[in-house]
Amino acid sequence: MLQHRTQIWHETLRNHPRGLVVNTAAILGATLIVGHTHSHWFWLWVVISLGVSAVRYGIYVYCCHSIKQHSAQAIPRHQIVLLHLSILSAAINWMIVAWIGIPEFQAKDKFAILIIISALAGGATGTLASLKITGKIYIALLIIPASLRMLLMDDPSLSVLAILGFIFAWVMMSSHQNNFRLLERSLHLARSNEDLISQLSVKNTEISNINSELEQTVEDRTKELQYLANHDLLTSLLNRRGLAEQSYQPKPVIHHQLFLFIDLDRFKHINDGLGHDWGDLLLQAVARRLKELVDELAAECGACHHSVCRWGGDEFAVHFICETFSAKDVHPACHYLQVMLSQPYQINGRQLHIGASIGIFEKRSEKLTDIADAVSCADMAASEAKRLGRGRIVFYSEVLADIQRRRLALSIALANAHKDGSLKLLFQPIVAAKSTEVVALEALLRWTCAEIGPVSPDEFIPLAEESDHIINIGKWVLQQACSAAKAWQDKNDDRIAPKVAVNTSIRQLIQTSFANEVQAILKNTGLGADRLVIEVTESVFDEQNMQQALISLLALHEMGVEIHLDDFGTGYSSLSRLHEFPIDAIKIDKSFVMSADEKSLAVVEGALLIAKKFGLKVIAEGVESAQQREKLMLLGVDELQGYFFGKPTEIATLSLTETSVPKLTNNA
Fold first, then answer.
1. What is the DSSP secondary structure assignment for residue 543, as one 8-state letter?
2. How far apart are CA 67 and CA 212, in angstroms?
3. 457-467 vs 398-414: helix axis angle to the nearest 10?
4. 143 and 172 Cβ atoms separated by less than 8 Å
5. Please, where are the H alpha helices in 35-106?
6. How confident is the model over 268-286, as pLDDT tens digits?
7. DSSP codes joined into one string, 178-247
């Protein structure tokens, strides 16, 4: 028992400098991030925290010196108590800054502190694994008070974070307990090995064969444990830890470092459709093929180091270090790797197809980039490849990093855009082609981000759809558009009041409650269903979402709402789908209207022919000249929209003329 406590104490002291360095770095990081607040209490906290770190270091040095002087004696209890109290004092300092700072700090500072505290708690599961009770108390002091503070602030978003914090605390304490058990088991195995070796050393030559067998057993057990710790059990490739622990010391020459992050495309469809057993078999087949391809490329380029890792799920990582690899050969090599990974896989008589999106980080330097940093950069590039449509190869760059940071900032801001006053609606007229009478007003969304300024819809709408913020934003748009249309209708002659057209995302349509929400908005605003036009894109024809989208559109159509198909000709429309869906009109994309070539004209003529066969109206966007209007009218287009008839403007600037045609009084 004494030996066990001594080993635990040694392990505690061995890990203590790591935790101390991380804690001090976290204090300095928090100072750089939050220091602009000019709060006196915060600077006092910084001074006290650094003082605590200094005291912790002094206690550590004292304990280490005591071990050297009295290595054979029992560990003094007061040393253990001092070290434990110093660790808990650091946790209390972070608890204080979270408790006081969460209500006071700005959002970015608040989340920075939460991230730092979460990172410290996560790290503590390893660095404090030897402290069975103190480690858990440390984690609890870091997370639970901060979560409780957020819960008490009566902010829905912070309440969600608070609940996640409690869950995170439970997970971290469970992880700490597991790490403690693994440590005890490892120490027990180590002691067992020492005992075996000690026993073997006193045996005589008559039992030398038995000694050799026992020694081999110990060696095999150690190798097995090391292998299990550094390799993925399913694919036998390196795991994250194995990749990180690989050490390579380059010669003092320029090296070409290449890191690939590979994310399989369509793997989830196979995993969900055929089951996890088939998914595991496919991952094993991908791992074998990837290992062979990487070995082949490494041999061709003369790589001085290469490794393949299963990062997790359907993600893989490849690391090359070459001395002579030409930069111009990088993309062909990666393209070859992608093409070969996308070839069919024959598994148990079934042919399976997947693809691969690859993010690449490359650097030519004598000093190698840290694995964690290389993974982060390559992962960022892989995420961009996925966003661009899968099956892509994207190289990391500082420009990409800036774009990702901007996307993150915009995505965070979008969460509250529908209630912070940063959104507004403009309206653009849609006129009858022959009479130029305004028959509808299309509601167009504009956003001015508080931190960044005006943001184009082409940028923030896709972001909103990716993050599901489009659900709340879309509901806000529908509410505002219907209210504005009703107010405009009440102000003017009801007989000539135009309809209002609202663009609707596929994410909204596949909500089972969408039709009921539209009906409720119409009832609350008093706008008739026949005054509302819902514009959808050709994404409603996608097999994955088509069934629920069709249910929603049929319900809307039964209410009397018109359904228009926007951007016709740019997606994947199917004539059979036009027949199945309750479409009242198609809108030809402005790219075909604004282009003067014969191919674009053929698309317009084809759209007209299809529409007339199906009994649909045809609306053309992007009309900017009298010549375009004349040509489209002669072709038989029913309605027109574009700057020629009016730019998007606020509803308040619309008025009636003597010809009963609403026109813009201010086209700015």
1. T
2. 35
3. 70
4. yes
5. 40-69, 77-104
6. 888 888 888 999 999 999 9
7. HHHHHHHHHHHHHHHHHHHHHHHHT--GGGHHHHHHHHHHHHHHHHHHHHHHHB-TTT-SB-HHHHHH--
Structure tokens at 6: 């001594």
Question: Residues with Cβ < 8 Å from 388, sequence gap 6 or more?
Answer: 394
Phi, psi values for residue 124, rounded to 5°? -65, -25
Parallel, antiparallel, or unpaired for β 438-449 and 617-620?
A: unpaired
Tokens of 350: 């079934």
* Integer CA distances (angstroms), 519 to 379, 429, 489, 510, 514, in order: 43, 24, 19, 16, 9
In this structure, the strands spanning 315-322 and 305-312 are antiparallel
Which SS3 state, helix, strand or coil, does residue 447 take?
strand
Radius of gyration of the chain (CA): 33
Q: Nearest Cα to 131, choosing from 197, 195, 84, 71? A: 84
Q: Which residues of 575-590 are buried (b: 16+ CB within 10 A; e: fewer)?
A: eebbeebebebbbbbb
pLDDT, residue 274, reads: 87
pLDDT at 523 (0 to 100): 95
Query: What confidence tens digit (pLDDT) does each residue in 175-192 have?
Result: 988 988 888 888 888 778
* pTM: predicted TM-score of the whole model, two decimal places: 0.56
Contacts within 8 Å (CB) and 24+ apart, 152-155: 153/102, 153/103
d(CA 622, CA 643): 7
First to last CA, the chain: 83
CA distance 576 to 324: 56
Examine the pLDDT at 156 and tell me if it is beyond 90.
no
